[in-house]
């Protein structure tokens, strides 16, 4: 449908009310089909957020075989059997988007790159009389947001999306042998999402000259599983595996359009979003007491994310095609002990793109991404701290053949990424 056809479609009949109501329903339905994809995260790994602790981030997230602080609850819960007594760790991750879009007409648009806070909390207890360790983690494995503003050339596809996703993850780890540990625990996940976009090309009058606006929001719960294995056959070698079960979150909420009237003010909306399984394997090599080198291979089953089922009280059931493809992250890191409890780390990882051009959406501007990182900290008898910085870079992804909106807009063009993230954490041992 081209722009002229779209305009004719929305012109009210002489009788007015019936055609106008049908137009409002059509606008809402089309917006819903787009919206349920868009409230997701703006990461280069689909909508995952793999950065959950500064010790790991500084090492390019190569931490599954090391897993030697309370954040092991996320990276590999089998690692908590290395920890004595009780330990609590609190962290804060600050990350900016850093996305720029070059439209085919030569105009450049930048997304809001304000830093967004992501908290992390972990607690571990290892009773001396048992070969068991227990942990509880509260963290955000998915999320963040992106705001392109209201004046881009794809504003009827997407303007602003936000996903909040919190996991509560109790775990139990068993030290089956002095060199071998297993762990498992449920994940209890709460998520909230919101998406906004323009409607555009409405006849004026009766609509305002700037067109209409659409938003949808909802929340829901989902349940999953987190498991890990760690084997250290010698002082120099350790192996780790972390597996996270797929989770489906059912969202209940509402969608609204403005101006209202004549458009529908608010209608009930439900949807289900699939968060895929992933598995991470790694090997840590310690050539001496002062060095720890690790490589991880991280695979996410994005092939299982084919569509998003949608239910709207006015229009029944439908689905939005996504057709992602599975991808890897290749992670490498090194840590050097500096003496007196201090250490420094450096890392790199490469993340593959998961979203094909044919289904590309600018709220999830997925690209191949290079990430570099560094950091350091201190580990003492009773307390410790660590800090890390990373950057993500892609010189440009050219998108061609992306979906066409009802007004004829596409997300075709070139997308650039340069973002920054900082993470700090403090550990208390008692």
pLDDT < 50 runs, ≥5 residues? 1-42
Q: Please state the average pLDDT score.
A: 86
Name the shape in a single word.
globular
CATH topology-level fold name: Porin
What is the straight-line distance between the termini? 66 Å
Number of helices: 4
The largest beta-sheet arranges its strands as: 1-4-5-7-8-9-10-13-14-17-18-19-20-21
**Name given to the CATH architecture:** Beta Barrel
CATH superfamily, called what? Outer membrane protein transport protein (OMPP1/FadL/TodX)
CATH class: Mainly Beta
Count of the domains: 1
What sequence of helices (H) and strands (E) makes up the elements?
HHHHEEEEEEEEEEEEEEEEEEEEE
- Major sheet characteristics: 14 strands, antiparallel, barrel
What is the gist of this entry?
The protein is mainly beta and 430 residues long. The chain has helices at 3-10, 17-35, 54-57, 72-75, and strands at 85-95, 99-102, 108-110, 116-126, 132-139, 143-147, 160-177, 180-198, 213-231, 237-244, 247-258, 267-275, 278-288, 291-300, 307-312, 316-321, 327-339, 342-351, 369-379, 383-399, 413-429.
Task: Write a structural description.
The chain is globular. The protein has a 14-stranded antiparallel β-barrel with strand order 1-4-5-7-8-9-10-13-14-17-18-19-20-21. Helix content is 8%, strand content 53%. The chain contains 4 helices and 21 strands. The N and C termini lie far apart (66 Å). It has 430 residues and is mainly beta. It has a single domain, classed as Porin, CATH 2.40.160.60. The longest helix is centred in the N-terminal third of the chain and has 19 residues, at 17-35. It has helices spanning 3-10, 17-35, 54-57, 72-75, and strands spanning 85-95, 99-102, 108-110, 116-126, 132-139, 143-147, 160-177, 180-198, 213-231, 237-244, 247-258, 267-275, 278-288, 291-300, 307-312, 316-321, 327-339, 342-351, 369-379, 383-399, 413-429. 49% of the residues are buried.
